[in-house]
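pls design
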């Protein structure tokens, strides 16, 4: 159950990042709501995951998935650089997250 909470936390963190990007471009109530609720729910689900997982593992996986997801979303939908070095960095983050999952 803890891993499900971490995955949900990462997904809503990515939604929060999308809201932040949209809100920085256009200040609307909907963009603000996506930004604030995404990050708030992200912390809630991270908190819930701590009943099942060690803080060090849950936090690292949450942060890694959220970061990798945010970079990918920004590259795919907001025109950020797709340089090979950036893609390689995301791959390294994902390898690290998978490694942490495998040992816990």
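designed seq:
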């Amino acid at each position: 159950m803890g891993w499900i909470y971490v995955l949900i936390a990462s997904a809503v963190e990515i939604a929060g990042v999308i809201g932040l990007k949209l809100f920085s471009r256009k200040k609307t109530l909907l963009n603000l709501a996506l930004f604030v609720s995404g990050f708030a729910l992200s912390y809630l689900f991270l908190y819930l995951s701590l009943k099942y997982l060690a803080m060090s593992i849950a936090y690292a996986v949450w942060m890694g998935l959220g970061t990798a997801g945010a970079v990918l979303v920004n590259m795919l939908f907001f025109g950020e650089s797709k340089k090979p070095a950036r893609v390689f960095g995301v791959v390294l983050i994902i390898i690290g997250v998978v490694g942490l999952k495998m040992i816990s």
